[in-house]
Amino acid sequence: MGYALQNSTYTLMQRFDAMTKAIAYLRVSTEDQHIENQRAAIRAAGFDIEREFVDEATSGTTKGESRPGFAAMLEYLREGDTLAVFALDRLGRDALDVLANIQALSDKGVRLVILKQQFDTSTPAGKLALTMFAAFAEFEHGLRRERQQEGIRRARAEGAYQGRKSKLTDEQKAELRTRYAAGECRAELARQYGIDRATVHRIAKSG
Prior knowledge:
Rossmann fold, 2 domains, 5 strands
């Protein structure tokens, strides 16, 4: 199933007189979908794709950072780069994953343009939306943590809670804190240590 290239998709980009260089991220979930439709949409929006990263036949339930193309893209991107994607759902498996990835891109100083949702972090409206996204992510994270804590309290009351062992040794945690303090990207640290970004943040702030 392909994506329809609708004129309304490109309203956001009509202010550009010349082709804007961009990194493109393309993802399809099944083998009968084609990345060419997404590539064509990005070019039609006025972008000159200087490099692209692709994940084909990748499940939408897989976290962004666990996809090889997405992980390579995060490592490649530098401050000042522009990343163009066709739709918001290309960036993650669920709302929290998408929001975390948007925040990771913002932390790297990357401009993000999402064609279908007409979202551009270089505009005042895009920056406002980014702030709202961050607030929503924090709210959702709080709800999940509250539900988790309630489950732990219930399990403890029933004598069933054993706790969870940390994936990292004390030495690895100390190393992570040092690298985080030196300014290394949270997403890249998460990938290297095999943990999620929230855990990176928690360990970095616990020292």
